[in-house]
Write a structure and sequence with these properties.
Number of domains: 2
Number of strands: 16
Structural class: alpha+beta
CATH topology of the largest domain: D-amino Acid Aminotransferase, Chain A, domain 2
Largest sheet: 9 strands, mixed
Oligomer: single chain
CATH class of the largest domain: Alpha Beta
């Protein structure tokens, strides 16, 4: 199947305060963000033309920039408006939105005090999410070789572009083996997350999830925890050892892209999309639909 390259599409992108033709939204090859990883971003979804959790995403974008030592030159409200304008200008209803901020090309060294901070927002069509029944088969995962770093060695609470290289390496290795994704451990050897999503384990009717002390506490993760508690499920955030997969009945991932997705296997371990996973899939799907309807009212 042919996929359009992301630098050669019709449409517009919001770039440093204005909408411009998609193909004109470029940066220089000597941009600091490319060479030194001084770049932060968000991934957002729109349902029926309304961006879910837009304020939380853009608050995190601003906070991520601060953790990397720079302030975005736009307010949260301006970035909110930019994302909405991009959706409308491109005629997108169900879509994916990518705000990104990076250091420019004024300096080319580790020090980057005088670089300009650029901000852009792009969006593209994302087919309507699958019905829960279509996702119940679950995905196949394998253990990653790379581990999430200690918070003393990287700005783990920032959604920083550079932190995703080990995710790319891990996902590529998993796909080469025929799996859909990889489960990453942290620097202590504890279960951390997937390459782009948080992970939950169901053990004897209780939901367990790793404490996000060296990886992102995802916005979807927090939303699903809230949904689980509304149903009366006990949610326990704690250190989880890989060997506990042997006593786990259900596993699911959460994230903007994956929403709530069951995991069928992790290497030799097998799981079912049980009642808890199915209920949270349905609850999340219902929530985003209600949000879109309420925003449009």
């Amino acid at each position: 199947m042919s996929i359009l390259p992301f630098d050669d599409r019709d449409g517009v992108i919001w770039y440093d305060g204005e909408l411009m033709p998609w193909r004109d939204a470029k940066l220089h090859v000597l941009s600091h963000g490319l060479h030194y990883g001084s770049c932060v971003f968000e991934g957002e979804r729109s349902y029926a033309g309304r961006i879910f959790k837009i304020e939380e995403h853009h608050d995190r974008l601003l906070a991520s920039g601060k953790l990397l030592g720079f302030n975005l030159p736009y307010s949260r409200q301006e970035i909110d408006a930019a994302a909405v304008a991009v959706l409308e200008a491109n005629g997108i209803v169900d879509g994916y939105i990518r705000p990104v901020a990076w250091r420019g090309s004024e300096m080319m060294a580790v020090s980057a005090q005088q670089t300009k901070i650029h901000v852009a927002v792009a969006a593209w069509q994302w087919p309507a999410y699958f019905a829960p029944e279509a996702r119940l088969k679950g995905i196949r995962m394998t253990m990653a070789d790379w581990k999430r770093p200690s918070p003393e060695t990287a700005p783990c609470r920032s959604k920083a572009a550079g932190l995703y290289m080990i995710c790319t390496l891990s996902k590529h290795a998993a796909e080469a083996k025929g799996y859909n994704d990889a489960l990453m451990l942290d620097y202590r050897g504890l279960i951390a997350e997937a390459t782009g999503a948080n992970v939950f384990l169901v053990q004897d009717g209780k939901i367990h999830t790793p404490t996000p002390d060296c990886f992102l506490d995802g916005i979807t993760r927090r939303t699903v925890i809230e949904l689980a508690k509304r149903r009366g499920y006990e949610v326990i955030e704690r250190a989880i050892k890989p060997k506990e997969l042997a006593k786990t009945q259900e596993v699911f991932l959460t994230g903007t892209a994956v929403e709530v997705t069951p995991v069928a296997e992790i290497d030799e371990f097998r799981f079912a999309a049980g009642e808890i996973t199915r209920n949270l899939m349905n609850d999340y799907d219902t929530l985003v639909r209600k949000h879109a309807a309420a925003s449009a009212a």
